[in-house]
User: Fold these one by one.
Assistant:
Number 1:
Amino acid sequence: MGVGCESCHGPGGQHVEAMRQGKTDALFMPKLQKQDGKTIAEMCGRCHRTTKDATAKNLNSEHTDLFQAHGLEQSRCYREGQNKLSCTSCHDPHTSISTDEKTYNQVCLQCHAPANIPITTRLLQRRPCPINATEKCTSCHMPKRAEPVFPGSPHKVADHFIRVQKEKK
Ligand code: HEC
Ligand code: HEC
Ligand code: HEC
Ligand code: HEC
Ligand code: HEC
């Protein structure tokens, strides 16, 4: 769909030229790995739409599933997460998406694991879930639903506004 390296990394001409000449001391590429959650969400949001875009274009702000950056930006995890929650916490932009729920649980647990559970990375210590403290986080808090703007499509999209959902899942 025309999404290439430069869509995210920016222009690479100078970088290619420098590497061809063997000048490896200056890369002429900003390191995306070093960017914080907000910078990444805004970068991905150029296509996946931020709250700013949704507001500017007068789009339905209920679409926290279709506009993933907008959804994430509504979440307390993102707003109060000290800039540690990023699109790349859950997605590797260089491969296809994981549909294995377990990969996402690991991210939630980096901040919500009960204090007595040993985990590799603990970013913050926040309240664990009173319903299920260790599993299936996204099925309840980021449920996938059929999207009414695509009538008849079997594809379900995940709500990126992480929260306690009102209706039962
Ligand atoms: C959808 C956006 C996107 C596309 C397309 C993309 N990248 Fe990346 N890339 C990223 C992000 C975000 C990171 C940082 C990943 C992280 O934090 O783990 C990254 C990291 C990298 C890195 C490690 C250095 C760094 O900047 O952190 C290299 C090298 C890289 N990408 C090369 C490529 C190449 C080559 C292509 C095209 C074949 C490509 N990328 C396409 C988003 C993208
Ligand atoms: C230049 C536009 C553009 C940018 C920037 C961009 N994306 Fe995308 N992305 C797309 C398009 C187009 C698709 C395919 C259509 C769709 O699934 O909505 C897509 C699909 C995806 C998918 C689904 C892939 C799958 O295997 O089904 C994920 C996840 C995703 N993008 C995450 C990201 C993340 C994370 C970033 C930032 C690091 C990012 N995108 C930046 C345009 C972009
Ligand atoms: C806390 C984890 C998490 C974060 C952070 C996150 N996502 Fe996702 N994302 C998911 C899950 C879970 C799915 C659904 C995966 C599946 O299909 O099983 C998903 C699906 C997607 C899809 C495919 C559309 C769909 O729902 O099928 C896109 C595009 C996407 N995310 C983009 C983004 C972008 C852009 C960001 C940053 C603004 C982001 N995501 C941040 C967990 C996350
Ligand atoms: C970077 C840390 C971080 C990550 C990762 C994270 N959260 Fe949070 N989450 C927070 C913070 C901070 C709050 C605000 C409440 C607090 O401080 O206890 C919060 C609040 C919540 C709430 C309550 C929302 C509300 O509106 O009151 C739920 C539910 C939640 N998180 C679920 C999740 C799930 C599910 C995941 C993984 C998909 C996740 N969180 C990932 C930091 C995080
Ligand atoms: C079966 C659905 C379900 C699953 C699975 C689930 N949750 Fe929850 N979670 C809830 C409900 C419902 C509440 C609200 C409970 C209440 O208010 O009494 C909640 C509340 C929370 C809160 C807010 C706690 C507070 O005291 O404010 C956080 C944070 C949270 N969940 C994170 C997670 C994480 C992380 C996971 C995965 C390890 C997870 N949840 C798995 C349904 C679920």
Number 2:
Amino acid sequence: MTATLSQSTATSMAAKKQLFEMILAFVKSQCIYVATRLEIFNLLYDEGELSVDAIAKKTSTAPDRLYFVLRALAHVDVLQEKPGQVFAPTELSNLLATHKGPSMGHLAMHLLEPAQWDAWNALEAALHTGEVPFERANGKGVYEFCRDNDWSGDVFINAMSFFTNHSVDALLDAYDFSRFDTVMDVGGGQGGLIAQIVKRYGCNGMLFDVPYVAATAPAYLEQQGIEPEAINIITGDVFQEVPTGADAIVMKYFISAWNDEDAAKILHNCKKALPPHGRIVLLQAFVPDIDEPKTAPDGIMPGIFAVQINVAVPGGGWRTKKHFQALFEQCGFQLEQVVDTTTNLSAMEFSIAS
Ligand SMILES: C[S@@+](CC[C@H](N)C(=O)[O-])C[C@H]1O[C@@H](n2cnc3c(N)ncnc32)[C@H](O)[C@@H]1O
């Protein structure tokens, strides 16, 4: 009896521990967000360790309040605390620095900025009405919001470029683009992915995105060591028309933003733009089926991330491979192969069904 009781106490302690961790997870996120916004990780990256007073002075913040945030970050290894309220950078804080190019700091700021946080506050009501929480909270879609707010737009574009840099090498190691003459990245952001495809496989590159995003591509491509004219940058709206000229279309984290009806419109336009032997290479994290592992090799849990995507955009909370396959088949495509990589990204290659 005693053994059974103490066993159940231990079990419930383990369960409570698990829940404490989950319930308080937002505190870590918010501390990361605010320290990134205040450029504290940039400061420590450049200057090494600094006292809380020095950091407060440089960031125009109150040292006693700031200390709680920095101490919490040190408790989870984002910073290192030394005697005398001195803080030093760590491997984690350096990954969050935003002044050396797209980083995890941009991702943190994009996911945690007030407009997104407001969307989470609208989730309960939106679950009842079926609205997109971000649209309910902000009166417009996330792409329009980012277009209309410079800081949000800049952070969003950089967050996407970080994600590309994070996964591109593993993708290009696993998936061979050399058999294509011209690859077009639809919704390709600043062009990081198409730049690397062109560099590694020597095919021609096309980049298609909305004007405010594509406008940032030439400077970004130049930073990547790509001559801007090596990639044909085209602006437009995928719901109007997809440009012709490519024998392969890649779409990374693009179609997942849309519900099935809109995704079908996009696939229809892609089909019109491709030659009969053309391919679509869908690049995504896929939500696992019930019997599949829940965590990708890089630690991302697609089923968790999917909620964030669903709070922000109309898309189907990401999809399983089977769901994507069915969607593409309904639109006249057939699955050729699935290639997994060592990050959260997998490739599903589709041909036009005969
Ligand atoms: C979630 S981001 C993904 C960006 C990039 N593929 C990546 O993985 O880093 C979606 C992209 O689709 C673009 N986009 C949104 N609506 C679009 C439209 N109607 N036509 C073309 N591109 C669009 C956005 O500007 C953004 O760059």
